[in-house]
Amino acid sequence: MAGVLLTGIAGFIGSHVAEVLADSGWAVRGVDAFTDTYSPQQKRDNVAALSGRAAVDVRTADLARDDLAELLDGVDAVVHLAGEPGVPASWGTAFGTYVERNIIATQRLLEAATAAGVRRFVYASSSSVYGPADRPLLETEAPRPLSPYGATKLAAEVLVGAYAQERGLSTVSLRYFSVYGPRQRPDMATHRFIEALLDHRPLPVFGDGRQARDFTYVGDVVAATCAALTAPVPSGSVFNVARGEPVQVCELIAILAEELGVTPRLEHRPERAGDSPRTEGCADAARDLLAWAPVTGLREGLRRQAQWHLRRRAAEPPGPAAPAQPYASVAGRQVQP
Is residue 36 within 8 Å of 97, Cβ to Cβ? Predict the structure, then answer.
């Protein structure tokens, strides 16, 4: 059984990757620092179902500080998803945290992976490395990140390429575009919108709501990530992972409101520094070389995420602000366990 080190296993994307890799016959050694960027309890909930699986070993470690040699002992590949997320929080004094968790941690892991002789290193990059554009973005586009977060993701991606070029490490970098779905982080737009709709609260919208995002379902992102582990592609390859169909934020809200049967009330706020007005990725290279394609439509993906929110609420004791009659379905459809 081949072994893989999966960093950020308890996160939104990482927990999904772990499940698919374990189901596919990989021995998964997962590591997470369980930082307080958002609720560590949500992260523990993300991996609760993995704790009893013999093929999954979840460990706690800080990639920027702890010894990594033991973590890499006996593994064949690395999937590096761990990092400090979020554009708005990356400005100001928080930047040092982004440097440590996105750049220093990646460099230390690359160094350890090279020493261990792993066969493939897959790095989770971001569409935030790009600048604003009114056309589909290709991997050959000159990076122009608009935020400190994007700058740290780009710096780490450059390091990955340097280790491929100069140290002989087989690497693949994946630029994820606006990932959504079950277990999404609470700071992300779709999560915030669904929770506000369920609470009948105004939805905070930055700007006029016409900014467009290339929303890509987490299951499709996981499929691309797993494909990158074994695909016969040149070392140092970079691929966009995107659905390729940007949707305006106001349209996203309209779909969610329709699915939940709630009339939305928007609360417009000033635009945030670092937010691009539009993201759209061209994923032709991933289709050709990773034999990957997105298969989940936006409405279906949003329905699955809404169902996850409803299941979480059904499992939690009602608080003071909980509605007297909690939602039990999505637009008349029963929520699946």
Answer: no
Are 202 and 83 part of one and the same domain?
A: no
Q: Are residues 166 and 262 in the same domain?
A: no
Nearest to residue 194, comparing CAs of 56, 301, 55? 301
Please check whether residues 42 and 117 belong to one and the same domain: yes
69, pLDDT greater than 60: yes
Looking at the structure, tell me whether residues 18 and 129 fall in a common domain. Answer: yes
285 touches 240 (CB < 8 A): yes
DSSP classification of residue 66? S
What is the predicted pLDDT for the residue at 318?
A: 61
Residues 21 and 162 in one domain: yes
Ramachandran category for residue 26: left, alpha or beta (phi over 0 → left; psi -120 to 50 → alpha): beta
**Contact predicate 217/254, CB 8 Å:** no
Could you please report the per-residue DSSP string of 209-275?
A: S--EE--EEHHHHHHHHHHHHH----TTEEEEE--S--EEHHHHHHHHHHHHT----EEEEPPPTT-
Is pTM beyond 0.90 here? yes
Q: Across residues 256-264, what is the average pLDDT?
A: 97
Nearest one of 294, 155, 163, 285 to 220, comparing CA atoms = 294
Q: Which one is catalytic: 123, 149, 163, 217? A: 149
In this prediction, residues 234-260 reach a mean pLDDT of 97
Q: Which residue has the tokens 């699955």?
A: 304
At position 197, the amino acid (one-letter code) is: L
What domain range is 144 assigned to? 3-176+218-241
* Overall number of domains in the chain: 2
Two structure tokens written together for 86: 């979020």
Instruction: Confirm whether 130 is a catalytic residue.
Output: no
**Span 119-132, pLDDT tens digits:** 999 999 999 999 88
